[in-house]
Amino acid sequence: MPWKELLPMDQKVLFISDWLREKSLSITQLCQRYSISRKTGYKWIKRYQEQGVNGLYEKSRKPISHPASIPLAIRKKIIELRMQSVITPGAKKIQARLKTLYPNEQPPSKSSIYNILHTEGLVHPQRRRRRYDRYTKPLKRSTSPNELWSVDFKGQFKLLDGQWCYPLTLMDDFSRYLLGCESQNTVGTRTTIKSFEYLFRKYGLPERIRSDNGVPFSSKAVGGISRLSAWWIKLGIHPERIEPGKPQQNGKHERMHRTLKRYATHPPEHSFKLQQERFDIFKQAFNEERPHESLDFKTPKECYQSSRQPFPETISAPEYPPYYEVRTVQKNGTIHWKNNRLYVTHLLEGEQVGLEEVDDGIYAIYFYFYQLGKLDIRDKAVGSGCYLSIKV
Q1: 142 — phi, psi (to 5°)?
Q2: What is the pLDDT of residues 336-359, one digit of tens each?
């Protein structure tokens, strides 16, 4: 036999009909017949008595008043902050900005701000990225401004005039302050040193600079040293490199690059001059307008101050301890030591290196404070004019 189906409204009408017709039934018995609670039965009867059959229809559960609704002025400000900022802020950043603009008002929650943006069509779904496994041996973290700077070249792109642009970016790790975003036409050492010298004179010198293993920050020479990193060492800066294939070890810088790519390179400009102007606008917005969650929603400018170590006009020669054996690197990259030739690197031509005996027959080779590698002569016929090499 077919199932007997009743719509909710039909059930209510039948319930009221039985209540009107069968006066001998109690409310409890009538509710048991229709499998409803006595509270529901009394509610239907009351609505029928007050409004007739129309009172049996389902009523909206929407609240009559909204005491916690977001004022129209705040809604407009949320949309304005989203649309008029150089770097499009998300719900967290907008909430932080509202706290600054309206200190005496409680800002809407992040989910409420997101819902407003979504309703206005200002939120676009993004493709989920595959995350890297967390590196279990982190590099030394920074605890103050200028303790660690990070540097990298954001991927090259072609300007509309056909020239290739290689943006050099330099950022303070602690405050996220974007120190430089320089549009270069090459990744060559001379051009990069020129950009660094300008930034060093403006902000002073850091203690360490972290980079990847690409040109011009590193090379295949002993100790991974390059002409650029050798210049840093002479200035007293410790070069620090991440592991190959581990960009997450410089994650703050990579995250900044993602924002830079989105707002300052698409679409590209017609010339280097116009592209640099666009980089400067992005730099100002990133440093002075965009609050960072990791900085308690402060801007990088509020957390950064220039280094107390100024850029020197002249670079002094290295001073090694008296127990070091000091040698000068020849044009072919070698030094003469104990009647042997030891290849260091041609990149240090004319520079002085120091050799320290750290164990019987084992020497550590230094360039200023930076250890290039070690030399093991225990199995070598020292003094016979043989050719020695450094082991990293």
Answers
A1: -95, 145
A2: 888 888 889 999 999 999 999 888
Q: What pLDDT was estimated at residue 174?
A: 95
- Predicted pLDDT at 392: 53
- Residue 185: the pLDDT is 92
* Token couple for 365: 């080779």
Residues 6+ apart with CB under 8 A from 25: 18, 19, 33
User: Which tens digits make up the pLDDT trace of 68-87?
Assistant: 688 888 888 898 888 887 78
- Residue that is written with structure tokens 């300008």 in the block: 198
Predicted pLDDT at 381: 56
Please state, in angstroms and rounded to a whole number, the distance separating the CA atoms of residues 121 and 34: 47
Instruction: Give dist(CA 373, CA 392) in Å, integer.
Output: 4
Any idea what DSSP says for residue 391? B
Q: How far is CA 87 from its chain centroid?
A: 14
Looking up tokens 């960009």 gives: 247
Closest CA to 246 of 139, 156, 173, 168: 139
Specify the pLDDT at position 133: 38
Closest CA to 8 of 40, 30, 49: 40
What is the reported pLDDT for 132? Answer: 39
Candidates 356, 310, 322, 349; CA nearest to 333 is 349
CA distance 124 to 122: 7
Distance CA 345, CA 324 (A): 19
Q: Which residues have CB under 8 Å from 20's CB, separation 6+?
A: none
As a whole number of angstroms, the distance between CA 254 and CA 252 comes to: 6
Taking alpha carbons only, the member of 41, 53, 18, 276 closest to residue 163 is 276
Distance CA 62, CA 46 (A): 21
Overall pTM > 0.85:
no
Measured in degrees and rounded to the nearest 5, phi and psi for residue 257 equal -60, -35
H-type alpha helices, the chain: 8-21, 27-33, 38-51, 72-84, 91-101, 110-119, 189-203, 227-234, 251-264, 272-288, 300-303
Q: In this predicted structure, what is the pLDDT of residue 385?
A: 55
Geometric angle at alpha carbon 241, from 167 and 317, rounded to 5°: 95
Low-confidence ranges of the chain (pLDDT < 70): 1-6, 64-68, 128-138, 379-387, 389, 391-392
